[in-house]
Amino acid sequence: MTTQNPGLFIAFEGGDGAGKSTQAAELAATLESRGLTVLRTREPGGTPIGEKLRSLVLDHGHGHIDAHTEALIFAASRAAHASQVIRPALERGEIVLTDRYIDSSVAYQGAGRDLGTEAVRNVNEWATSGLQPDLTVLLDVDPEVGRRRRTAGDAAEDRLESEADEFHARIRTAFLELAAARPEQYLVLPAHLPVDELAVRILSRVESLLSLPRGVGA
Ligand code: TYD
Predict the structure, then answer these.
(1) Where residue 218 falls among pLDDT bands split at 50, 70, 90?
(2) Is residue 2 part of a domain?
(3) What is the total count of domains within the chain?
(4) How crowded is the C-beta side of 183, counted as CA atoms within 13 Å?
(5) What's the domain range around 103?
(6) How far is the CA of 43 from the centre of ligand 1 (A)?
(7) Residue at 215 is within a domain
(8) Mean local confidence (pLDDT), 44-55
(9) pTM
């Protein structure tokens, strides 16, 4: 299902250290240089309440957070994000680029935390009233490479990032399965490609979407 809005909704997904933010920034700059209006945002976060939920769920020091609570905090943050930020921007005809969306919960909480991918998807579809990206760019990263990248320069790992490589391997598999189930809605790229090459491939796919009449088709 597309957004049925005049705008274009693109989600960047992938494991930690995949380079999503870099690619979202590159794409935003290119599209803006062509006079298009782009809204860049991220999850968890993207709204004042979402940023508070982000620190609750990611920062160490809030005591034990069980898997269901964790999944519902991410879903609550996403509900606010979808209704307060993403949907209004799409209705204004903007291009929305989000760093993570529903697939992150399906992969991290559904597969990583073993809550079940279907259950987590259902909760999140309810939370967002079924708002789906027109395109999901999946940057596929080897968990070991991802860990090396994100800990370079002594950056501290958050609650999720500091999980074992085996947890991150389950997440990687889940992302790839999501993409394989609906290939027309995904662009899957190996995260180890040079930054410029990734940017060119992503732009080319987005250009093909922009030349299509919006709100038509599957
Ligand atoms: P992210 O903001 O991408 O990390 P960073 O700020 O380091 O770039 O995401 C923070 C973490 O939250 C990341 O480990 C993935 C996790 N996460 C989930 O587990 N479920 C979710 O639904 C989302 C959106 C993120």
Answers:
(1) very low
(2) no
(3) 1
(4) 1
(5) 8-210
(6) 7
(7) no
(8) 94
(9) 0.93
